[in-house]
């Protein structure tokens, strides 16, 4: 501390020790200022200054002992992470707890690579030498050397510096066995999913050729039978013929919808900039006859542009608008609105298809998006029950989601959320 004339250092002799110096020192001592000392000068107060310096030294020693007991040493000793240091020769200099079956003395001084599986030597060596050369921390994951305990670790390697020199490195291990097992399980699931997708593509190829041919024959021979013998058939025979042709037609519709479901991924197109307003206009042109026949009023607000598969965006909007036209209330002209909004903060857009149709009970919400699921009888509303399943799969392929809000007799709102952009793989 200063405050005395002549800039004497604490503990040095000089002018008489003053009361003000003692009061300032006691104030600093009371606030636990580290390493504080009082100048010892001359006069009647000098012995008191020297005694206070002794007290300060005692308090400092006690503080350091407390830090030793409750500080870094305790943290390192009790840590569940293994902590090691190594020198520039890549030999271990410290470890907070040792490898099972070995004493501390049997570990310290040995090469880091004595405790690394041979298959991992080069990868680990590359990380450690990079840290020693550049001073930049790095990590690697590794399978455990020991047969007991955790199976997988992530090791963070950091530099040890002595001034401007790098004299070694620290290695702190974290048990990631559960995470690694979950990752391996996910990879296995992905492999199984890939296999399933390949099988689905194989089915799509078969369905587009082999299964279609018998249906074409059934329909063709049915038409010939009706032309050649239609007048001679009994009413019951004509009914059987009509049922056969209707069944063949439904089967063809099912096959075509299964193909569409499979092709969401198997024949997907690259993402490009897609103007959804233009897509919606084209879809309304395709639905023009259905709109006129039902007397529907369709409102389309400005829609965003996003990165997407344009063919699948067209399929998505056509299915949702087509459903709104199909599931209308008897005696009520359909009113349908297609709205779009953008959340710049999240980089997402939301599409809403709102209608005044028959609606549905939301307890069936998950069911309506499943393959072949219908809430109504087959005769009342046409279709195979796959349209919404295809829509949800399209939304999922684009990194988005599809849900709905509804109540019986109160219409329905289908909500599609899609990202505006896709990061490159």
SSE map:
Elements: H1 19-30, H2 46-70, H3 72-78, E1 83-87, E2 92-95, H4 104-107, H5 121-134, E3 138-143, E4 152-162, E5 165-175, H6 177-209, H7 212-229, H8 235-266, E6 272-275, H9 276-286, H10 288-294, E7 297-300, E8 305-308, H11 310-326, E9 335-343, E10 348-355, H12 365-368, H13 387-397, E11 401-406, E12 412-419
Structure description:
The chain is α+β, with helices and mostly antiparallel strands. It folds into three domains: 19-70; 80-179, PAS domain (Beta-Lactamase, 2-Layer Sandwich), CATH 3.30.450; 269-424, 2-Layer Sandwich (Heat Shock Protein 90), CATH 3.30.565.10. It is 46% helix and 19% strand. The protein is built from 13 helices and twelve strands. The longest helix has 33 residues, at 177-209. It is elongated and about 135 Å long.
Order of helices and strands: HHHEEHHEEEHHHEHHEEHEEHHEE
Question: Into how many domains do the coordinates divide?
Answer: 3
Low-confidence stretches: 1-11
Query: Average pLDDT value?
Result: 81
Q: How many helical stretches?
A: 13
- Our Rg estimate from Cα atoms comes to 39 Å
The best one-word shape is: elongated
CATH architecture of the largest domain: 2-Layer Sandwich
Which fold does the CATH topology of the largest domain refer to? Heat Shock Protein 90
The CATH homologous superfamily of the largest domain is termed Histidine kinase-like ATPase, C-terminal domain
Secondary-structure class: alpha+beta
Instruction: Give helix % range.
Output: 40-55%
N/C terminus separation: 62 Å
Tell me what portion of residues adopts beta-strand conformation. Answer: 15-25%
CATH class of the largest domain, named Alpha Beta
Largest sheet: 5 strands, antiparallel
Oligomer: single chain
């Amino acid at each position: 501390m200063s405050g005395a004339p002549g800039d004497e250092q604490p503990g040095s002799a000089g002018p008489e020790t003053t009361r003000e110096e003692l009061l300032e020192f006691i104030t600093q001592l009371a606030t636990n200022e580290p390493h504080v000392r009082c100048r010892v000068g001359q006069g009647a107060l000098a012995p008191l200054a020297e005694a206070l310096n002794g007290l300060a030294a005692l308090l400092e020693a006690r503080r350091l002992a407390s830090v030793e007991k409750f500080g870094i040493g305790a943290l390192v000793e009790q840590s569940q992470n293994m902590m090691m240091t190594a020198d520039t020769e890549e030999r271990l200099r410290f470890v907070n707890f040792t490898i099972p079956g070995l004493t501390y003395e049997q570990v310290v001084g040995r090469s880091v690579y004595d405790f690394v599986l041979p298959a991992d030597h080069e990868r680990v060596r590359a990380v450690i030498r990079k840290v020693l050369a550049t001073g930049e921390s790095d990590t690697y994951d590794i399978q455990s050397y020991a047969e007991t305990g955790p199976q997988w670790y992530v090791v963070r390697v950091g530099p040890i510096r002595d001034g401007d020199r790098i004299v070694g490195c620290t290695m702190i291990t974290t048990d990631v066995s559960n995470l690694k097992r979950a990752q391996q399980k996910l990879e296995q699931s992905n492999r199984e999913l890939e296999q399933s997708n390949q099988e689905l593509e194989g089915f799509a190829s078969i369905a587009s050729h082999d299964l279609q041919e018998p249906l074409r024959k059934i329909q063709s021979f049915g038409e010939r039978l009706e032309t050649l013998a239609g007048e001679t058939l009994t009413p019951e025979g004509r009914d059987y013929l009509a049922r056969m042709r209707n069944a063949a037609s439904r089967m063809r519709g099912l096959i075509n919808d299964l193909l569409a479901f499979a092709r969401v991924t198997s024949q997907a197109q690259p993402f490009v900039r897609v103007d959804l307003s233009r897509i919606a206009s084209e879809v309304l042109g395709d639905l023009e006859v259905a709109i006129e026949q039902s007397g529907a009023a369709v409102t389309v607000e400005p829609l965003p542009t996003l990165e997407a598969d344009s063919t699948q965006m067209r399929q998505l909007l056509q299915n949702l608008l087509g459903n709104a036209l199909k599931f209308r209330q008897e005696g009520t002209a359909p009113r349908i609105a297609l709205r779009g909004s953008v959340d710049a903060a999240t980089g997402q857009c939301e599409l809403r298809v709102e209608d005044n149709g028959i609606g549905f009970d939301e307890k069936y919400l998950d069911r309506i998006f499943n393959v072949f699921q219908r809430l109504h009888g087959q005769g009342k509303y046409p279709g195979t029950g796959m349209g919404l399943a295809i829509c949800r799969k399209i939304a999922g392929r684009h990194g988005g989601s599809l849900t709905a809000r509804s109540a019986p007799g109160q219409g329905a709102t289908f909500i599609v959320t899609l990202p505006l952009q896709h990061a490159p793989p």
